Amino acid sequence: MISRMIKMDLHSLITKKSVWIAIILFFVISLLNYEFLKSEEPIGNPYYIPSPAFHYFVSAQGGGSGFLFVFLPLLVAIATGDLFIRERNSSYLMFSIMRTDIITYIRSKIISIGICSALIMALSQILLLSYTLIVFPVNLPDPSGTVPYFAENIYLNSPLLYCLILILNSSAMAFFMGTLSILLSVILDNLYAAILAPYILFIGLSETLMSAPLIYDSNLSYALYSLSPLVMSGDYITIEYSWWVVLIYWIILTIIIALLTILVFNKKYKREKLI
């Protein structure tokens, strides 16, 4: 059932205008970020050496001059945020449930939409990385230059692997956003509210956690800041995390939201409030 759902959801995504709008928006924002990064380069210095492609790709993800991480969750919401609520408002939901049990259906739907969301994110990031490697010089990063704190040794010694780790992390975040969109689509009835609510909740929770150090100066406050979803979408490159921390973070959050989605879906279905 999962493979059938994935095929159907992928076919739906390919034919959706909003998916292509999200991908185009992703590239526009990325290229604007690249231009901003280039404007910070000391081009007038006679000893200036252009930064390598890896510097641009990594710096755009987050940090002091990167702002792509703010838009990544929104792009997922635009691309896949309406998949479940459109199915819920059609006869296909009842048809699918009749062919299997409730838990199997919603579990398969979570996996399907999560995978589709992750694939769109991975494809967009891989295309951006490919473009970056073509346009900018492919050199090893300079240890004396701007170096991310996140998995620093991997960045300096295997920058391509480092970029792939960032893509894996953003894909895991996209899987989480896809799962969150299902949960809110179960709770909400309005199409546009279901699309925007995941991003609004994502930003709202992040801003709350990121403001903790301003309210109370303590180690716990800074820990909450570092673990906010927005920071973990890309700004984590400024934090001394091991390479696996961000991936585990999104896996844990996704499992929590998935279990909550199954619980709420089952409850609403038994009360006949879904159809």
Describe what is shown at a glance:
This protein is mostly helical. The chain is built from 13 helices and no strands. It has helices at 2-14, 17-39, 53-61, 68-80, 83-88, 92-99, 102-135, 152-157, 159-187, 191-210, 212-215, 219-226, 245-270.
| Poorly predicted parts | none
Largest sheet composition: none
* Count, helices: 13
Distance between the terminal alpha carbons, to the nearest Å?
A: 21 Å
DSSP strand tally: 0
Strand content: under 5%
H/E element sequence? HHHHHHHHHHHHH
* Radius of gyration using CA atoms only: 20 Å
Structural class: mainly alpha
Question: Into which percent range does the helicity of residues fall?
Answer: over 70%
Oligomerization state of this entry? single chain
Shape: globular
| Overall mean pLDDT | 90
Topology (elements, then pairings):
Blueprint: H1 2-14, H2 17-39, H3 53-61, H4 68-80, H5 83-88, H6 92-99, H7 102-135, H8 152-157, H9 159-187, H10 191-210, H11 212-215, H12 219-226, H13 245-270
Helix pairs in contact: 1-7, 2-3, 2-4, 3-7, 3-9, 4-7, 4-9, 4-10, 7-9, 7-13, 9-10, 9-13
